[in-house]
Design brief:
The protein has one helix and three strands, in the order βββα. It is of the alpha+beta class. It has a domain at about 10-55: Double Stranded RNA Binding Domain. A three-stranded antiparallel sheet has the order 1-2-3, covered by helices on one side.
Length: about 70
């Protein structure tokens, strides 16, 4: 089962790629040449992030769902 973290996807001119960020998991992000590829890549990275945090006995935040911005 895939964790339900919010993912923000956007085009980066600087990187010439789509970027997928997971704001609730510090530093968790991936890129891809297409929107779909960035999403697939970040799903792998989320699982790796969680696996590494577990291995290091670090805190793993619970998904909060939709983030609110002021």
């Amino acid at each position: 089962m895939q964790p339900k973290y919010e993912i923000i996807l956007y085009w980066s001119e600087e990187d010439d790629a789509y970027i997928a960020e997971v704001p609730e998991l510090a530093g968790c992000m991936a890129d891809g040449t297409t929107y779909q590829e960035a999403l697939q890549n970040v799903e792998v990275i989320i699982n790796e992030w969680i696996g590494t945090a577990k291995a290091l006995n670090r805190y793993i935040p619970e998904p909060k769902g939709k983030l609110m911005y002021a």
